[in-house]
Amino acid sequence: MIGLTNIEKRFGDNLVLKGVTVSLDEGSVTALVGPSGGGKSTLLRCINLLEIPTSGALRIGDEALEFHPGGKVPAKDIQRIRLQTGMVFQNFQLFPHRTAIENIMEGLVTVLKWPESRARERALALLEKVGMAHKADAWPATLSGGQQQRVAIARALAPSPRVLLCDEPTSALDPELAQEVVDVLGQLAREGTTMVMATHDLRLASKIAQEVVFLDAGSIVEKGPASVVFDNPERERTKRFIASLRQEEAQKEAGAPQTPAP
Amino acid sequence: MPHWLQLMLDSLPTLLWAALIFTVPLTLLSFALGLIAGLVTALIRLFGPKPLVLLARFYVWIFRGTPLLVQLFLIFYGLPSVGILLDAFPAALIGFTLNIGAYTSEIIRAVIGSVPKGQWEASYSIGMTWSQAMRRTILPQAGRVAVPPLSNTFISLVKDTSLAAAITVPEMFQAAQRIVATTYEPLILYVEAAALYLALSSVLSALQARLEVRLNRYGGFLEANA
Fold it and tell me: Does this model's pTM top 0.80?
């Protein structure tokens, strides 16, 4: 189980998260939705401590940490939490100086000190899983955005994290390439991977997520099962936001140039 | 055989020998040590505590802002006045190292800063510590960008080692000066010395080109879009 209790995050005078409490079941997929600047990315980054919460408590499985204003979190504790999480970034952030398979092996070899051969085996299996085994030795710069993101997903999964954090995993991709990433994430969801994703891709969220948390201005406006929040939201704020997303989606679909199949 | 060619051929072994035992070692050693000094200085300026940052800035300010020749004179002729007596070669080595350190620290600081922040985050997200991220992710990428400006510094250094002649290091240029003192043929000998420096820096340029090809094998930096 992953639990965030009363998480507050302050950047200078700016209170970005105003006491957020969420708990996620093992094997569940949760979508964090909401307007830009609403705090969904920050909340996600508070789970693997790329941002250290100003106050609150975080629990991932057996690891628990509390945060206090002005308190310094020991590097060891940060690393303990990070090893329980994997992260997929909007802009992939593959290591450009390593091949696809080396990207996946990196954490296993450098951090977990696995022997090279065992790491390679695991990396290949993961590449297989995301449909990228044929590009194992390719440089990231030679891959399409969708392919890069699939490799990035494999990299995040390599140390078998308890939870996969996805920060706008399809936002940098055009619809066609986004689809292949959605497919991979959907497959992982069916296999029971615990995931939290910040997204405003309705297709991604509605296809994969069971739970939706709607964040606005640093607070949770509404949370619940995806079917309820998307189709029958309680709050006016949520309704308006979902409607605007739908509209955007429809426009994109209508306006998208028809690309012939390769 | 014309006189000038005869003279050049006769003096060539002397000049090459001086290059081999002074110019080349002085260049390589002071560049290697200077790179270390530059890396340390750059890391302090980027990540160090405030007092050390000020100290590092002071060092760069002094060594970039004063002439190299004056620095060499201060170390070799000046320091004995306060009881620090150095032989010519170590004095030159220290001078060049500190000078190179000041210049390369600026280059290294810039290229480390040029690696996207997302690369740090990606490294942290797979559990790396700061130093693992630095070693495995940031420096290899920064290193690639640093090759052209560092090569500039390196090539300047090869030529600048001729300044060591002024503090009695018998390197290649001083060897040429000595031959001039007995033959009275400055034009011929100095052209020959210039040609040898040109040859040395041409070799370095060629090595730089090969290194760049090797480091560029993974293609361009990743753009943030698809």
Answer: yes
